[in-house]
Amino acid sequence: MNKLIKTIRYILLIAVILISTARCKDSYLEVQDPNSISEANFPTTLTQANLLVASVYGVQHHWGFYGHYWLGYGMYCLDHTIDLQWRGDDSWIGICTGLAQATDGKLQSQWKALYRGIYYANSAIEGMNKYRAIAPVAEKQKIDFFEGEATFLRGFYLWHLQSFYGQPNLDGMGVPIIKSVPTSIVSMSVPRATTQNTYQAIISDFKRAAGLLKGQTDIHRATEWSAKAALAKTYLFAGKNDSAKIYLEDCINNSGKSLVSFNAYKNMFNGNTQYEYNTESFYEIGNLGDPVNGNSYGSPMTGSTTSMLYAPFYVAADGSRTAMSYSNQYLHDRNLPRFGYNDVPPLTQLEGSGTAWNLKQSYIDQQNSRRLNAGKQSDGPDPRLWVSALQPLFDSVKIAGVYRKVAQAEFGKWYTLDPATLNFPGTFYGWGARKYQYLDGTLLETRNVAGYNFYFIRLPDIYLMYAEILSSTNPTLALEYINKVHRRAYGYAPNVVSPVDYKSLTDRTKAPAEDHLANNPLLYERWAELFGEARWWEDVRRLNLGSKEAAFYKEVAGGKGKITWRNEHYAMPIPSIEFESNTDPGMKQNPGY
Question: What pLDDT does residue 38 have?
């Protein structure tokens, strides 16, 4: 996959050429020139077939998807991973507060990118079927792998479309399902399937992919276990628990996957290749930073620019806060007490005068003890807080080869707050997001294209889905799988009883008493373990938690935006431009937009 990623910028150009010529019948395309790309002679080799599949992988890096938009303009706003440092964009605030607008471009690029991925997948699948007719027998398995990868990715893109634009209720409106390359404008007019049928289409793709990918061992590409893990998850979301249970048990017992150490878990989200493609990952989007040719404002690219929006601040040599990129966003303060962190904000712990401001030594000692003894203090936070967040004035980032302390999200000196931001020293925390963050310099050093991998499904997700299915029929075993995830987070062996084990499915968690996760270890572990990985919103939708989440997070942008829940907000508005080209009567806008 690493080799593929390096060539994606060229592969996407080839794919665009293919798309523009694939159905054209002009006579000049009938000339058989072996050095040109045409419907008549592509693909004719395994290398050319690989290019088609690589283009499907390439869409993962698209500007409208994980290349930029998916987190900071989408999932992180919807699930309140972040709050807004930049308060000058009312539509952006609206995404966070339940008032998304159909005309907002931040919610449109995802649609175009994901359907491009489906188009490329369909083109690749058709290409594989065509190449089979002329390929040597010895290449059959490789062609199966290529078709399996393209089919997996088609389901993968459809999953994300459904998670963003489809209604969560099974009898609601899903998204249009396209399983062949359109041959005309008319054939591109497709109705919305029901949510249930959308999931069924995803299940069909993942199931076929699992069969085609048997024997695929390249962990940098989709494998049989990528497909089976995704299949288990889709069955759960489709309300087919019996089928989900079969695939979950298969993944647990036969995939060879195991939980990595806590140290590896902490270091697997920031581009350190030593910890990526590890033993608990079923599928991840592989990224490479590109300090030479990085393209921060569009495709093609080999990595992602998404952390431009939530890059942290650091304390510069002169004591001022300095942004590491745009730094429009920071960790929502309400996530701290949910992790069990209840200490006072740092700006209440200052001593000194003029420019010689310092933190009180007692506070420094307290915080260092919290970090050193993470998980061992009854009044301390969940250790995953420091996997997910950057603590101002204690965590560091590398700037031009020198480590600098992280600062609170703000502008000016680290020990002052601008009243215009509506933040106050006695209540403001302003921690940075740590997952999917470039920590080894400013993003400008990589031309804003960073190389942290994004995870789709990890073994903890499998364990917790399995626990959910077992919770009503075998609560003891369900609790054991919850505790496997919990133990690893606290530094204990996952499969051995530990002092931190939950004692029941309603045991107390680290969440505040008023939080709906306070006595729900299953949901709490899903939230804490997968925090910042763009997965929590899927569960909020599926379990109808929107109003409870709104009540917990309350507001954004320093109080400028009060979160007002409405069920229509579970599904983002479909771009208006779609209705100009898709004229099918069954193509309808989501209610409320």
Answer: 63
Average pLDDT, the chain: 92
Q: Report residue 389: phi and psi, to 5°.
A: -140, 155
What are the distances in angstroms from CA 178 to CA 197, 213, 381, 510, 538?
Answer: 12, 22, 46, 44, 22
Predicted local distance difference test score (pLDDT) of residue 420: 82
CA–CA separation, 281 and 527 (whole Å): 18
84 in helix, strand or coil? strand
Q: What is the pLDDT of residue 36?
A: 55
pLDDT value at residue 29? 30
Q: Among 17-26, 40-49, 93-102, 447-456, which is the least confidently predicted range?
A: 17-26
- The Cα 149–Cα 129 span in angstroms is 14
Map residue 562 onto helix, strand or coil.
strand
Give residue-wise pLDDT tens across range 545-577: 999 999 999 999 999 999 999 999 999 999 998
Q: Which residue has the tokens 């420091």?
A: 386
Rounded distance, CA 410 to CA 312, Å? Answer: 10
Instruction: Please spell the DSSP secondary structure of 215-232, one letter per residue.
Output: T---TTS--HHHHHHHHH
> What letter would DSSP give residue 74?
I
From start to end of 376-509, where are the E strands? 389-390, 396-399, 402-407, 412-413, 432-433, 454-458
Give the tens place of pLDDT for each residue, 440-479.
Answer: 989 888 888 999 999 999 999 999 999 999 999 999 999 9
- Cα distances (Å, whole numbers) of residue 477 to 187, 319, 422, 483, 539: 50, 53, 48, 10, 22
Extract the runs of DSSP E, i.e. beta strands, from 295-360.
313-315, 320-323, 329-331, 350-353, 356-359
Q: Report the candidate in 422, 411, 430 with the shortest Cα–Cα distance to residue 347.
A: 430
Return the bridge partners of 313, or none.
323, 407
Phi, then psi, of 150 in degrees rounded to 5: -65, -40
pLDDT band per the 50, 70, 90 thresholds, residue 260: very high
Q: Tokens in use for 297?
A: 């404002």
The alpha carbon dihedral of 24, 30, 32, 33 has a sign of negative
pLDDT given at position 418:
85
Which of these, 314, 309, 297, lies nearest to 397 by C-alpha position?
314
Alpha-carbon span 562 to 553, nearest angstrom: 9
Question: Nearest CA to 275 among 295, 297, 259?
Answer: 259
Contacts of 230 (CB under 8 A, 6+ apart): 152, 155, 156, 159, 202, 206, 282, 283, 456, 457
Q: Which two tokens stand for residue 471?
A: 């919770």
User: Which amino acid is it at 246?
Assistant: I
Please report the domains of the chain, with CATH numbers, ordered by start residue.
2-222+573-581 (1.25.40.390), 306-435 (no CATH)
The predicted model scores a pTM of 0.93
> Each residue of 132-144: pLDDT tens digit?
999 999 999 999 9
